[in-house]
Amino acid sequence: MVPSVKNDAKEYQSRDEWLTLDSHNKTIIQWSFAIFAVGFALWHVTTNLLINESPLWQNSIHFAGFAILATVIYPSQLLGRQNLFFDLAYGSLVAWAACWVAASESRIYEDTLALTGQAWQFNMFDWTAGGLLVIAVIDFSKRVSGWVIPILIILSVSYILFLGEHLPGVFRAASLPLDDVLFRTIYNDEGLFGILANISSSNITLFMIFGGFLVVSGASDFVIEVSKVVAGRIRGGAAFVAVISSALTGTISGSAVANTASTGVITIPLMKSNGFRGQFSAGVEAAASTGGQLMPPIMGAGAFVMASYTAIPYSTIVSVSIIPAFLYFMSVAFVVRIEAVKHRVGDGIDMSVSRAKILAGALTFIVPLTVMIGLLMSGVTPNFAASTSIAVLIIVSWLTWFVGRATGTIELQTNVMNIKRIVEACLLGMRSGILTAILLVSIGVINNAIVTSGIGNGFSLMIAQWSQGSPIVAIGLIALASLVLGMGLPVTASYIILAILCAPALAGILADNIIIEKLVGGLTDPMQAALFMLVESPNVAKVATGMSIEEASSLMADVPFEVAMTMRPLLVDADMLMGFLLVAHLIIFWLSQDSNVT
């Protein structure tokens, strides 16, 4: 059995190498696969800049392409062995299904309105394609992240199909017919090819490609060497190098795994050689790399999802995230300093710095990143900012090369983005994007079930009741839920699910505290005071004259949940409500990072 395991591991590794140019013995199939991946990367850039494609078609093609990539890179196991023909056939079939449902939407609408106007008129191919897509997202999400998301998808579909009507209390929901469930799952804005898929196809994949270009152009070496310059000569310097390099890598990666893989192989041995314990070295790298997902401008997928759900500009979200990210890394650095002083390790040990790597990577790292941040702050769309930054990086690399040739500086000629490096960058971007693309499309099924059933309002009511209007208690409850979800879900999935269920509740509690302050001073506006006249509370008579904070809190506790949702826009400024929603999303986003253990 041992040789079999080794062979499987070797074959899996060879599949992963299909998206690199390292192997010199590629088969025709492997080269075809690599060419497809590069073409798919270029399609993302083209369709977001030049082609005005409908969101449904763009998201369907996006998932179709990543279905082919995922089924090869994350191969299936049939009878304990991998089967390339099956994987390619399966991926192609899923890709057909995604394109079929996109092409069939208008026909399904027309047939339904012409015949009944009620039951959706699916033909045999519609049922086959729709069912295959649901099975595919269950399978692919299991391949890339384990069993938690597939189980949640199965429970979500079951909940709106038949399970909801058998549950008690706030969890009770009306069941829907199978055709309605399938249609909503695929075509709703909250479904498979809805908002989350659009975030992936329009923004995140382009940022993944941009990150691939930065890495190939020497950004990782530049980050490590700059970190050595900044922190290499102080006590605990090696660990500070890990913290700083992970923070800088987080600006271009947005993935804890990619961050650890690119910096950890250098920083962990460096910390151990400076006297830090092995466990502590690994812990510092893990904590710092996880914090990379908090670093603007990419922030994993969280910033894009947040912008979509709150309707707040992406640039605003990035701006308010800078200080919390800085404080996070300062806290990690503080622990590093304590460890270094306590155990007297890493005391001013000099680390060699490669000036050549700094010189070679400086312009190709700083200039494109500065251009991206400047464009985002100016209000352009993230996909345009990412695409422009890719073009700027290529131009800067060639300008640097020409300067190197003219001055005879060899270091400036090492990272030019020629055709081979551009291909490598596209392949790396596609490889990095598989996990996020599959997860966002898959979570669309869960998102659709939550919105369709209205269970999100039930969760909001539960949090409001259990917290008794206390933001601290509400955050504690959300943190507990985040910890449980973080045991089996990736950060992005955990954040999205928590945000859908809990963000409105937390934002509402924050808004209620403003209303309580107004009640303490008294509501002078008769229209606002009249909102409380139907509430059964002994404190209603004091609405216009003012009351103690305890009485105001008691009055708000007596307001029914649905009435409170109606009151808030009338009693609290719209900008303040939007700010509370952003704060709620940011808190949940940070909790998702810190609670994730996968």
Architecture overview:
With 598 residues, the protein is an all-alpha fold. The protein has three domains: 2-195, no CATH class; 203-428, no CATH class; 454-595, no CATH class. The protein is built from 24 helices and no strands. It has helices at 2-16, 28-49, 55-73, 84-115, 124-145, 148-163, 178-187, 195-216, 219-231, 237-250, 256-273, 278-291, 302-310, 314-343, 355-378, 382-407, 419-453, 455-467, 471-486, 491-521, 526-530, 549-558, 561-571, 574-595. Helix 11 (256-273) packs antiparallel against helix 12, helix 17 packs across helix 20 and helix 20 (491-521) packs across helix 22. The longest helix is centred in the C-terminal third of the chain and has 35 residues, at 419-453. The protein is globular, with a radius of gyration of 26 Å. The chain starts with a helix and ends with a helix. Residues 1-14 have low confidence and may be disordered.
- Helix count equals 24
| Beta-strand content estimate | under 5%
Q: Specify the structural class.
A: mainly alpha
Multimerization state: single chain
Helix content: over 70%
Question: Roughly how many Å is the radius of gyration?
Answer: 26 Å
> How is the main sheet built?
none
| Average pLDDT reading | 85
The unreliable regions are 1-14
| Number of spatially distinct domains | 3
Q: What is the H-and-E element order?
A: HHHHHHHHHHHHHHHHHHHHHHHH
| Straight-line N-to-C gap | 28 Å
DSSP summary, beta strand count: 0
Shape: globular
